[in-house]
Structure formats: structure tokens, C-alpha cells
Amino acid sequence: MPYFSSLLVAALSLPIVQHAYGQIFTVNCQPLTIQRSDPVLFPGVISPHVHAVIGGTAFQQTMSTTTAVNALDTTCDKKIDHSNYWQPQLYHRMTNGSFELITFQGSAVYYLNRACDYVAGETTCPSTFVPKAPPAGLRMVVGNPTLRTFDASSFEQQAIQHVCLQDNASPNTFSLPPMACDRLRAETFFPSCWDGVNLDSADHTSHMAFPATGAYNGGVCPSTHPVAIYSVFYEFYYDTSPFPDYENWVYAMGDPTGYGLHGDFINGWTDQTALENAVATCSGPQGAQAATCSVNENEGAAVALTPQVAPPSEQVGLNGAIPALPGNNPVTGTPIKRRSRLYGESFQI
After folding, report:
1. pLDDT for the residue 21
2. d(CA 22, CA 17)
3. Assign residue 55 a region: left if phi > 0, alpha if psi is -120 to 50, beta otherwise?
4. Could you tell me if 184 and 164 are in contact, meaning their C-beta atoms sit under 8 angstroms apart?
5. What is the pTM of this model?
6. pLDDT, block means (10 residues), the chain with 349 residues
7. Would you say 237 and 183 are in contact if contact means Cβ atoms under 8 Å apart?
């Protein structure tokens, strides 16, 4: 796959952070595919916009609760993780109105101990609390692709951030960065509170919730969603260095603001027991690097692979510039020209 930078993505096979607050373990992944599919929100049809996808090779337009688990392989280093993780692809708008891909380099997915079960009257989490693993077959989304403005009071919008990676600084913004960056890190933090019953819902969001107290990235779950699960947090990396005109970066759904960044997750762990035992086995002095850490079963290198099912046959920019964003998505909204102050606690890895 020549559109992936093997040198930069290879660096993602190393643990990016050794000791993050509440970190259980990290899954490092190379890209799998860039295509217009979304089996959670638009099963069985071409999705409205292009996504960058990592994880199990069974990714396709229609996925049952067992499709991901039965994938033949994964692009991630945790080989028992056949889950799929995706975000919208980032493009560069050229002066002639055409669009070119900004190279997607790979991802890190963090599994964290941040939220706790609902208990009447409790406003903080006990230090000894251990959340449940995401249940087998769980699907969840975070973010809204139609957003072009920011609501500082919304946990869901606080959970969507960008980091501009530069030589001397790495500022965080909720919007796409109002500055040139060597690399862009697109971050999505998923809701950590589950209703305890449903693996999905009609709107694909109602079965999950953010904490009722605390912050978007940690706290006590609400009574409506009383079960805390491992917090799932994505970092997707893009090589933005060839495109210093940051005001022309645009997500695949026609978003130049970045407020419409979103993420999808399908749980495809092949050994659910190993996932459930991660807190107990990966929390010693060596953390997730310990040989006894349950999720390290058959651990290997993150590698770029080809999906088992071919993507829709269309040009999405892999072979050069395209005249319009796939799906004919118009660019809507105004690029953010100045950095907005982060509201409340920003996510600290």
C-alpha cells in the first residue's frame, strides 16, 4: 500500500506512552483501508463519506456481531484484537478546487480505567474500582459529522480534540489546528458508561453515555447507564507537513472546522476473557509490557494489510487528486482562524 508511510507508521508499533493515567494497555495499528463504508451507521450501503480504518481484516459494509471476531488477521500489534476502529479521512483542498489525500499514518488506541459504576449519592470514583471490559459485540460511536460549531458545555464535544505536532510545541484544539503542523493527531474519546443490556441502539448512541459527574474522560456513570467499561480513546495520525496551508484541510464529510470529527468502534476481541482480565494482569510494575499481561497473547508487530472484502469501486484519492470529495460532500463551515481555549480538563495521556 504505497499511500502509507511505512517508516512513520512503524514507529507506532512501539508503545507511545508507557504510564498514562488510568492506562490499562495500548493497541498500536497500521492502516487497513481508506474507503466509503460504515457498517455501524450505514450497514449494507456506501456511506456518505470516506473513513480511515484500522484493525481486523474482515471490515466491510455489512458486519454481524461475529464478523470482526472471525477476521483472518489484524493490522494491530495485539493479535487477539480483531476489532475495527475508524474516523473520517482528512483531505487537502487544492487551489483548483480538487482534493488530495493527506497521508494517514496509523493509530494508537488506548484502553483506560477512567469511569466507575453508578452508585446513588457517589460523586467520585473509588481508587480501587475496576470497570468491565467492553462486552463482546459492542458497537459505539462518538462525535457528530454534521457539527461545525463548538458547545463548551457538551462532554461529547469536549471528547473530540486535535493535537498539532510540531518540533517545539504540541498545542491542543477542539477544532482543526489554526496553524501549520508537522503531523496532526485526531483524537476521539468514547463514552465509558453502558446501559448494561444493549450492544447497539437504533441511533447507535443511546446505549452509551458519558459520566454524570466528573468529566468526559472520567467520573461516575449516570443511573440510566450504570455500568462502567474500559474507556476507549483513539489517536489517528496524519502527515500534514506537505500542506502548510492549514485552512485548506478538510475532513471527508466536507468539514473544514474539525468539530465534526467522529469515531466508530466494533468490538472484535477474539479472547474476551483476556480482555476482561487486562486490569488484573497488566497493572503490575511492568504494566502492559509484562509477559503475563493477558492481551499480549500472540502479540506481534502492527502491519498494513488488505481487507478480505474489496472496498467499493471508486476513486477516493489513493491514486491522485479527485475533483470532489467522494459522496459529493460540499465543504460547509468556515475554517477556524485562531486557537480556542480548551474548556475544563483536556485529555492528558
Report:
1. 64
2. 12
3. left
4. yes
5. 0.92
6. 41 41 88 98 97 98 97 97 98 98 97 96 94 97 97 96 92 95 97 98 97 95 98 98 97 98 98 95 85 91 97 96 98 79 41
7. yes
State how beta strands 23-29 and 262-266 pair: unpaired
First to last CA, the chain: 30
234 contacts 187 by C-beta, under 8 angstroms: yes
- Cα separation of 146 and 49, whole Å? 12
Q: How many CA atoms lie within 13 A of 140 on its CB side?
A: 28
Grid coordinates representing 219? 467520573
| DSSP code for 16 | S
CA–CA distance, 305 with 168 (Å, rounded to integer): 34
Contact 175, 259 (CB under 8 A): yes
Q: Catalogue the E-assigned strands of 48-98.
A: 51-55, 84-88, 90-93
Cβ contacts of 167 within 8 Å, gap of 6 or more: 182
Partner residues linked to 60 by β-bridges: none
Do residues 244 and 102 touch, judged by C-beta distance below 8 A? no
Strand, coil or helix: 295: helix
Angle CA 139–52–132, to nearest 5: 30
C-alpha cell at 211: 459520566
Name the CA radius of gyration of the chain, rounded. 19
26 vs 201: CA distance, rounded Å: 27
Cβ(215)–Cβ(344) below 8 Å? yes
The pLDDT tens digits of the residues spanning 172-188 come to: 999 999 999 999 999 99
Q: Which amino acid is at 319?
A: N
- Residue identified by cell 462486552 is 135
Tell me how far apart the 2 most distant CA atoms of the chain are, in Å.
Answer: 59
Residue type, 3: Y
Q: Where are the beta strands (DSSP E) in the chain?
A: 23-29, 31-35, 51-55, 84-88, 90-93, 99-101, 104-112, 115-116, 139-143, 160-165, 172-173, 183-189, 193-194, 208-209, 219-220, 227-228, 231-238, 249-251, 262-266
